[in-house]
Amino acid sequence: MVTLTTLPDLRTEGDIKTLVDTAFSKANDDELLAPLCHAVARVHWPRHLTSLYDYWSNALLGTTRYQEGQLVPLHSALPVKGPHFQRWAEVLQRTVEEKFAGSKAEEAIHKVATLASNSRAA
């Protein structure tokens, strides 16, 4: 007998933390992204993760901790377009699909696709 496991939707701060932490764990193991992750880690890793928690919490849960442009100083020395950003978007989307299902998960996937599309156009 096959048991189907229903994935949770992205509904809580804990879910946001799981999403970001899991995606960054994968990025740290990714051939293209790992050098960037290590560069960020040396400078301001905890601050970067906190900003990402705030960003995704704002985008998906409607919280107001994220201040527009909060991630800009953290990304100023990183490639935020091109192949690096596209890979990051792939990692993030794959993480959502593996960990979550439901309307908020779909919203996250759409948001990632929009960010990736904007990155290609920039």
TrEMBL record:
InterPro entries: Globin-like_sf, Globin/Proto, Hemoglobin_trunc. It comes from the Bacteria. The keyword Acetylation does not apply. The keyword Metal-binding applies. Gene3D superfamilies: Globins. Keywords: Heme, Iron, Metal-binding, Transport. Pfam families: Bac_globin. Transmembrane segments: none annotated. GO terms for molecular function: heme binding; metal ion binding; oxygen binding. This is Group III truncated hemoglobin. It comes from Hymenobacter perfusus.
